[in-house]
Amino acid sequence: MKTSEFEQLTTTLFGEWLSIFNDEGEYGFTHRVEKEINRIAYATNLTPETVEKAVKANADLLLTHHDAWDFLYGMREVCVSELERHGISHYFNHSPLDFVKFGTCTALFEQIQIDEITSYSTCTENKDYPGIGIFERGITFSELKGRLEKALNEPVGAWQNHGRPVKKVAILTGAGNNSALIKYAMEQGCDAFITGEKTLYSVQYANFAGVNLYVGSHTFTEIFGVENFAKKVQEAYPETELVLIKEKHLEAADKKCLIG
Question: Do strands 192-195 and 212-215 pair parallel, antiparallel, or not at all (unpaired)?
Protein backbone atom coordinates (compact mmCIF):
# COMPACT_ATOMS: atom_id res chain seq x y z
CA MET A 1 0.00 0.00 0.00
CA LYS A 2 1.34 3.40 -0.96
CA THR A 3 0.81 6.53 1.11
CA SER A 4 -1.54 7.91 -1.54
CA GLU A 5 -3.60 4.70 -1.39
CA PHE A 6 -3.87 4.98 2.38
CA GLU A 7 -4.99 8.59 2.02
CA GLN A 8 -7.68 7.59 -0.46
CA LEU A 9 -8.82 4.78 1.84
CA THR A 10 -9.43 7.25 4.67
CA THR A 11 -12.00 9.08 2.54
CA THR A 12 -13.86 5.80 2.06
CA LEU A 13 -13.69 4.81 5.72
CA PHE A 14 -14.74 8.15 7.21
CA GLY A 15 -17.00 9.50 4.46
CA GLU A 16 -19.02 12.57 5.43
CA TRP A 17 -17.27 12.97 8.78
CA LEU A 18 -14.20 14.29 6.96
CA SER A 19 -16.20 17.06 5.31
CA ILE A 20 -17.99 17.90 8.58
CA PHE A 21 -14.64 18.51 10.31
CA ASN A 22 -12.70 19.64 7.23
CA ASP A 23 -11.94 23.17 8.46
CA GLU A 24 -11.19 22.35 12.09
CA GLY A 25 -7.76 20.68 11.99
CA GLU A 26 -9.27 17.44 13.27
CA TYR A 27 -7.45 15.02 10.98
CA GLY A 28 -4.62 14.77 8.49
CA PHE A 29 -0.89 14.28 8.09
CA THR A 30 1.58 16.10 10.31
CA HIS A 31 4.34 14.59 8.16
CA ARG A 32 3.79 12.83 4.86
CA VAL A 33 6.22 10.66 2.91
CA GLU A 34 5.05 9.12 -0.35
CA LYS A 35 6.37 5.58 -0.03
CA GLU A 36 5.34 1.95 0.27
CA ILE A 37 3.67 1.33 3.64
CA ASN A 38 4.37 -2.17 4.88
CA ARG A 39 4.10 -1.62 8.63
CA ILE A 40 1.76 0.66 10.58
CA ALA A 41 2.37 1.53 14.23
CA TYR A 42 -0.61 2.92 16.12
CA ALA A 43 -1.23 4.70 19.43
CA THR A 44 -3.64 7.22 20.93
CA ASN A 45 -1.16 10.11 21.15
CA LEU A 46 1.54 11.71 19.03
CA THR A 47 4.46 12.23 21.43
CA PRO A 48 8.25 11.94 21.18
CA GLU A 49 7.90 8.57 22.94
CA THR A 50 5.39 7.14 20.45
CA VAL A 51 7.54 8.36 17.56
CA GLU A 52 10.60 6.72 19.12
CA LYS A 53 8.73 3.43 19.48
CA ALA A 54 7.49 3.67 15.88
CA VAL A 55 11.11 4.08 14.77
CA LYS A 56 12.14 1.00 16.79
CA ALA A 57 9.26 -0.93 15.22
CA ASN A 58 10.51 -0.02 11.70
CA ALA A 59 7.12 1.50 10.95
CA ASP A 60 6.42 3.32 7.70
CA LEU A 61 3.35 5.08 9.10
CA LEU A 62 2.42 6.15 12.63
CA LEU A 63 -1.34 6.29 13.13
CA THR A 64 -2.80 8.16 16.12
CA HIS A 65 -6.05 9.60 17.41
CA HIS A 66 -4.49 12.84 18.66
CA ASP A 67 -2.18 15.36 17.10
CA ALA A 68 0.47 16.99 19.33
CA TRP A 69 -1.81 19.99 19.83
CA ASP A 70 -0.58 23.60 19.78
CA PHE A 71 -1.02 23.93 23.55
CA LEU A 72 1.59 21.17 24.01
CA TYR A 73 4.14 23.85 23.28
CA GLY A 74 6.94 22.66 21.01
CA MET A 75 6.01 18.97 21.09
CA ARG A 76 4.79 18.74 17.50
CA GLU A 77 8.01 20.30 16.20
CA VAL A 78 10.11 17.69 18.02
CA CYS A 79 7.89 14.88 16.74
CA VAL A 80 7.94 16.08 13.14
CA SER A 81 11.72 16.50 13.23
CA GLU A 82 12.13 12.85 14.24
CA LEU A 83 9.55 11.66 11.72
CA GLU A 84 11.43 13.51 8.97
CA ARG A 85 14.76 12.11 10.11
CA HIS A 86 13.49 8.54 9.91
CA GLY A 87 11.23 8.87 6.86
CA ILE A 88 8.02 7.97 8.71
CA SER A 89 4.61 9.42 7.86
CA HIS A 90 2.22 10.39 10.63
CA TYR A 91 -1.56 10.60 10.24
CA PHE A 92 -4.02 11.46 13.01
CA ASN A 93 -7.79 11.31 13.04
CA HIS A 94 -9.57 12.95 15.97
CA SER A 95 -13.25 13.92 15.79
CA PRO A 96 -14.17 11.76 12.77
CA LEU A 97 -12.85 8.70 14.63
CA ASP A 98 -14.99 9.60 17.65
CA PHE A 99 -18.18 9.53 15.61
CA VAL A 100 -17.68 7.04 12.78
CA LYS A 101 -19.52 3.76 13.50
CA PHE A 102 -16.35 1.72 14.07
CA GLY A 103 -14.78 4.46 16.19
CA THR A 104 -13.77 5.09 19.77
CA CYS A 105 -17.13 4.75 21.52
CA THR A 106 -18.17 1.67 19.59
CA ALA A 107 -14.81 0.07 20.26
CA LEU A 108 -15.13 0.57 24.02
CA PHE A 109 -18.63 -0.89 23.94
CA GLU A 110 -17.09 -3.94 22.29
CA GLN A 111 -14.46 -4.18 25.02
CA ILE A 112 -17.07 -4.26 27.82
CA GLN A 113 -19.09 -6.85 25.87
CA ILE A 114 -22.27 -4.84 25.51
CA ASP A 115 -25.15 -6.87 24.07
CA GLU A 116 -26.54 -4.20 21.74
CA ILE A 117 -25.58 -0.69 20.66
CA THR A 118 -28.87 1.17 20.25
CA SER A 119 -27.42 4.51 19.11
CA TYR A 120 -23.95 5.55 18.01
CA SER A 121 -22.05 8.58 19.26
CA THR A 122 -22.60 11.59 17.05
CA CYS A 123 -22.11 15.33 16.69
CA THR A 124 -24.74 17.75 15.43
CA GLU A 125 -24.71 21.55 15.52
CA ASN A 126 -21.44 21.49 17.50
CA LYS A 127 -22.98 19.30 20.21
CA ASP A 128 -21.55 15.89 21.04
CA TYR A 129 -23.82 12.99 21.98
CA PRO A 130 -22.64 9.73 23.56
CA GLY A 131 -23.30 6.31 22.15
CA ILE A 132 -25.82 4.18 24.03
CA GLY A 133 -25.86 0.42 24.54
CA ILE A 134 -27.76 -2.20 26.52
CA PHE A 135 -26.86 -5.17 28.68
CA GLU A 136 -29.90 -7.41 28.21
CA ARG A 137 -29.79 -8.97 31.69
CA GLY A 138 -28.13 -6.11 33.53
CA ILE A 139 -24.87 -6.32 35.47
CA THR A 140 -23.73 -5.00 38.82
CA PHE A 141 -21.95 -1.71 39.43
CA SER A 142 -18.79 -3.62 40.42
CA GLU A 143 -18.91 -5.97 37.45
CA LEU A 144 -18.90 -3.09 34.97
CA LYS A 145 -15.99 -1.50 36.84
CA GLY A 146 -14.12 -4.80 36.62
CA ARG A 147 -14.76 -5.15 32.89
CA LEU A 148 -13.44 -1.64 32.29
CA GLU A 149 -10.33 -2.16 34.41
CA LYS A 150 -9.57 -5.42 32.62
CA ALA A 151 -9.92 -3.80 29.20
CA LEU A 152 -7.99 -0.62 30.04
CA ASN A 153 -5.42 -2.33 32.28
CA GLU A 154 -5.59 0.54 34.74
CA PRO A 155 -7.63 1.75 37.74
CA VAL A 156 -11.03 3.17 36.86
CA GLY A 157 -12.74 5.84 38.95
CA ALA A 158 -16.29 4.75 39.76
CA TRP A 159 -19.12 6.49 41.59
CA GLN A 160 -22.23 4.47 42.43
CA ASN A 161 -25.22 6.79 42.43
CA HIS A 162 -28.10 4.29 42.55
CA GLY A 163 -28.74 0.68 43.50
CA ARG A 164 -30.25 -0.61 40.26
CA PRO A 165 -28.59 -3.17 37.97
CA VAL A 166 -26.71 -1.53 35.12
CA LYS A 167 -28.58 -2.21 31.89
CA LYS A 168 -28.42 0.95 29.76
CA VAL A 169 -25.00 2.57 29.33
CA ALA A 170 -23.81 5.77 27.62
CA ILE A 171 -20.20 6.20 26.47
CA LEU A 172 -18.26 9.19 25.22
CA THR A 173 -14.57 8.37 25.35
CA GLY A 174 -11.77 10.86 26.09
CA ALA A 175 -12.77 14.25 27.48
CA GLY A 176 -16.46 13.50 28.03
CA ASN A 177 -16.53 15.51 31.24
CA ASN A 178 -19.33 17.91 30.31
CA SER A 179 -22.32 17.61 32.66
CA ALA A 180 -24.60 18.11 29.63
CA LEU A 181 -23.51 14.67 28.41
CA ILE A 182 -24.53 13.10 31.71
CA LYS A 183 -27.85 14.98 31.55
CA TYR A 184 -28.44 13.52 28.08
CA ALA A 185 -27.60 10.03 29.38
CA MET A 186 -30.04 10.50 32.28
CA GLU A 187 -32.80 11.70 29.93
CA GLN A 188 -32.27 8.59 27.78
CA GLY A 189 -32.78 6.39 30.83
CA CYS A 190 -29.15 5.32 31.17
CA ASP A 191 -27.95 3.67 34.35
CA ALA A 192 -24.28 4.52 33.73
CA PHE A 193 -22.03 6.96 31.90
CA ILE A 194 -18.46 6.03 30.88
CA THR A 195 -15.77 8.48 29.81
CA GLY A 196 -12.06 9.28 30.04
CA GLU A 197 -11.92 12.48 32.11
CA LYS A 198 -13.83 14.05 35.00
CA THR A 199 -14.28 17.40 36.71
CA LEU A 200 -15.75 18.30 40.07
CA TYR A 201 -18.93 19.26 38.26
CA SER A 202 -19.32 16.02 36.30
CA VAL A 203 -18.97 14.04 39.54
CA GLN A 204 -21.43 16.33 41.33
CA TYR A 205 -23.98 16.19 38.54
CA ALA A 206 -23.79 12.40 38.13
CA ASN A 207 -24.55 12.11 41.83
CA PHE A 208 -27.46 14.55 41.55
CA ALA A 209 -28.84 12.87 38.41
CA GLY A 210 -28.55 9.36 39.85
CA VAL A 211 -26.31 8.04 37.06
CA ASN A 212 -23.37 5.77 37.88
CA LEU A 213 -20.15 7.38 36.63
CA TYR A 214 -17.06 5.50 35.42
CA VAL A 215 -13.89 7.35 34.45
CA GLY A 216 -10.87 5.65 32.88
CA SER A 217 -8.05 7.58 31.23
CA HIS A 218 -8.34 9.70 28.10
CA THR A 219 -5.60 7.66 26.41
CA PHE A 220 -6.83 4.16 27.15
CA THR A 221 -10.56 4.71 26.67
CA GLU A 222 -9.70 5.69 23.08
CA ILE A 223 -6.97 3.28 21.98
CA PHE A 224 -9.46 0.64 20.82
CA GLY A 225 -10.93 3.05 18.27
CA VAL A 226 -7.47 3.59 16.80
CA GLU A 227 -7.04 -0.18 16.72
CA ASN A 228 -10.34 -0.58 14.84
CA PHE A 229 -9.12 2.03 12.34
CA ALA A 230 -5.82 0.20 11.86
CA LYS A 231 -7.63 -3.10 11.38
CA LYS A 232 -9.87 -1.52 8.72
CA VAL A 233 -6.72 -0.51 6.84
CA GLN A 234 -5.34 -4.03 7.19
CA GLU A 235 -8.62 -5.49 5.89
CA ALA A 236 -8.21 -3.41 2.74
CA TYR A 237 -4.49 -4.21 2.44
CA PRO A 238 -3.95 -7.60 4.14
CA GLU A 239 -0.18 -7.57 3.58
CA THR A 240 0.15 -4.60 5.94
CA GLU A 241 1.56 -5.37 9.40
CA LEU A 242 0.17 -3.66 12.50
CA VAL A 243 2.14 -2.79 15.63
CA LEU A 244 0.49 -1.52 18.82
CA ILE A 245 2.59 1.16 20.50
CA LYS A 246 2.26 0.69 24.27
CA GLU A 247 1.95 4.06 25.95
CA LYS A 248 2.56 4.83 29.62
CA HIS A 249 -0.38 5.13 32.00
CA LEU A 250 0.49 8.76 32.73
CA GLU A 251 -3.05 9.64 33.77
CA ALA A 252 -3.39 6.93 36.43
CA ALA A 253 -3.55 8.51 39.89
CA ASP A 254 -1.44 5.72 41.36
CA LYS A 255 0.68 3.89 38.82
CA LYS A 256 1.42 1.20 41.42
CA CYS A 257 -2.25 0.23 41.25
CA LEU A 258 -2.06 -0.78 37.58
CA ILE A 259 -3.53 -4.17 36.85
CA GLY A 260 -1.33 -6.96 35.53
Answer: parallel
Strand order through the sheet with 131-139: 116-119, 131-139, 166-171, 192-195, 212-215, 157-159
Decide: 91 and 72 in contact? Cβ < 8 Å.
no
Report the CATH number that the domain containing residue 161 is assigned in CATH: 3.40.1390.30
For 217-252, write each residue's pLDDT tens digit. 999 999 999 999 999 999 999 999 999 999 999 998
Q: Are residues 79 and 9 in the same domain?
A: yes
- Measure the CA–CA gap between 229 and 216, rounded to whole angstroms: 21
Within this chain, do residues 105 and 161 fall inside the same structural domain, yes or no?
Answer: yes
Q: What is the pLDDT of residues 126-183, one digit of tens each?
A: 899 999 999 999 999 999 999 999 999 999 999 999 999 999 999 999 999 999 999 9
